[in-house]
Design goal:
Elements lengths: L7 E4 L5 H12 L3 E6 L2 H7 L7 E5 L5 H15 L2 E6 L14 H22 L3 E10 L12 H21 L5 E7 L14 H14 L8 H12 L10 E4 L7
Parallel strand pairs: 1-2, 1-4, 2-3, 4-5, 5-6, 6-7
The structure holds NADP nicotinamide-adenine-dinucleotide phosphate.
NADP nicotinamide-adenine-dinucleotide phosphate binds next to helix 1.
Length: 249
Amino acid sequence: MKKLENKVAIVTGATSGMGLETAKKYLSEGAKVVLTGRSQEKLDALESELSGDFLLIKAEASSIEDSRQLIAKTVEHFGKIDVLFLNAGIFRLETIDALTEEIFDEVHNINVRGPIFTVQAAYEYLNEGASIIFNTSIVNVKGFGGMTAYASSKAALRSVVRTLASEFGPKGIRVNAIAPGPIDTPIYGKHNVPQENIDQMASHFPAMVSLGRFGSSDEIAATALFLASSDSSYITGAEIPVDGGMAQV
Ligand SMILES: NC(=O)c1ccc[n+]([C@@H]2O[C@H](COP(=O)([O-])OP(=O)(O)OC[C@H]3O[C@@H](n4cnc5c(N)ncnc54)[C@H](OP(=O)(O)O)[C@@H]3O)[C@@H](O)[C@H]2O)c1
């Protein structure tokens, strides 16, 4: 028996990295999957890459109207929702002297505001036993320089998980987070992070990780499957670190 047979899952930010790998994993476990992204070109490219019952929807993660449309289209196409993986996010690296209001707002609008209002839009369409999963980061418990905007957004999400777990508990709906450590995805080459900073992180991170390497999107997808399925039926309000030990030892 597949672990997500007949379940409907939404994965935001599924055109790349962990979101894409998780969407593939969910499809292989029998779920009907809605994949979102902000680039129509990247979504179109997935048509031939994926197999199974899926729907590709362009949705800007920071737009509340797009989130409402995403939920409406999902419900129209597949009916109610069982898994909501709020994965879309951006990374920025500016020390406090270089941080602007625009950068701060962009990070928090995409990483925090968007996921919160997507949950609100989905509220009445979540099945009993549904699983909501946020993608946070272990930086929410570390003090890495240059991450004021990013780390604070992920710390906010950690708090949101606790609050929503309390609100959704009586409905039998679980709310959890995955906190990745350094995972080898395209994110580091995006969002105006200077190449020299990327090179620096690439050379320093492995030494800071007990397992001595970057993680893979597949290792996140495996955890996202665990949290989506009934294997984690008594886990809520939790954040599971998938970090090779980086923030644990
Ligand atoms: N990689 C790491 O080391 C790491 C560590 C801890 C936490 N995380 C978190 O893990 C999540 C996934 O990151 P990843 O590493 O897999 O990065 P990724 O490969 O860049 O994937 C991010 C996905 O989110 C989408 N996205 C970004 N901004 C969006 C927006 N405004 N509207 C809609 N979609 C948007 C991206 O689309 P585009 O490709 O079009 O931008 C992409 O599909 C993020 O929340 C990130 O903060 C990553």
